[in-house]
Amino acid sequence: MKYGRTYNFSAGPAMMPEPVLEEIAAEMMNYRGSGMCVMEMSHRSKVFQQIRDEAEADLRKLMGIPDNYKVLFIQGGGTVQFAMVAMNLMKNGVGCYVETGAWSKKAIAEAKKYGEVKIVASSADKNFSYIPDCSNLDIPDSADYVYICENETINGTTYFQLPETRGKVLVSDQSSMFLSRPCDVSRYGLIWGGVQKNVGPAGMAVVIIREDLLREDLPKFVPTYMSYKTHADNDSLYNTPNCWAIYCCGKVFRYLLENGGLETMHRRNEEKAKILYDFLDQSKLFTGAVRKEDRSLMNVPFVTPSKEQDADVVSASKAAGFDNLKGHKSVGGLRASIYNAMPKEGVEALVEFLKKYEAEHA
Ligand SMILES: *Cc1c(COP(=O)(O)O)cnc(C)c1O
Question: N or C: which end of the chain has fewer CB within 10 A?
Answer without folding.
Answer: C
